[in-house]
Amino acid sequence: MKARIIRTLIIALILFIIIAQFLVDKSNVSSYESVKAFEIAEKVDENISRILKNNCYDCHSNHTDYKWYGSIGVINLFQSHHIEEGKEHLDFSAWDIYKEGKRKHKLEEVFEEIEEDHMPITVYKITHGSLSETDKDALLVWAKSRL
Ligand code: HEC
After folding, report:
1. What share of the chain is helix, strand, coil (3-state, %, to 5)?
2. 95 vs 91: CA distance, rounded Å
3. What is the pLDDT of residue 53?
4. Ligand 1 atom 6: the closest Cα is on which residue?
5. What is the model's pTM?
6. Average pLDDT for residues 93-119, to the nearest whole number?
7. φ, ψ for residue 59 (rounded to 5)?
């Protein structure tokens, strides 16, 4: 009986892995141009641009670097979920359609999330490393200057 349950679970797991492979979605890859309007409007210099590119744009813009493991179905499912949810909350590629008030509010949230070490999310820190203290400070100074 027990062996049967285990066998069923293993088959279900294998099926899940195979189906996930067919669902691989790496479509969030507009060019870097998609964040240009944001970078110009908010006076993002080269250093801040680098920090955002390495730590935030993957989930908060149309410009994701999926890396090699993004081709693994099961991992890709998580990535796609984070991108969808991330962009719902904050989308740097949508800056030109955000109203002035919304922009300020989002920048306030950026400041808070960085100050409280909430972003990037934990699983991303494992693969990409945490924000260095210097980069964190630079982001905070920049975000504050835009409020
Ligand atoms: C791996 C994906 C991922 C990365 C990378 C990432 N975020 Fe997020 N972010 C999310 C998700 C998912 C949410 C929504 C759920 C939550 O708040 O945890 C979110 C929410 C936010 C919010 C909105 C919070 C709110 O109150 O609505 C801000 C602001 C934010 N992130 C800023 C950043 C900044 C700045 C960076 C880079 C330093 C970053 N994020 C990197 C996934 C990510």
Report:
1. 75, 0, 25
2. 7
3. 96
4. 120
5. 0.93
6. 96
7. -110, -15
CB of 135 closer than 6 angstroms to any ligand 1 atom = no
For the chain, the domains span: 24-145
Q: For atom 11 of ligand 1, which residue has the closest CA?
A: 86
Q: What would the mean pLDDT of 130-134 be, rounded to a whole number?
A: 96
List the structure tokens of 75: 């991992």
Give Cα 83 distance to the centre of its chain: 5
The atom of ligand 1 lying closest to the CA of 112 is 29
Ligand 1 closest atom vs CA 131:
38
pLDDT of residue 31: 83
Question: What value does the mean pLDDT take over residues 116-134?
Answer: 95
State the DSSP code for 120: S
Residues 6+ apart with CB under 8 A from 136: 114
Phi/psi at 63 (5° precision): -120, 80
pLDDT (mean) for 25-41: 93
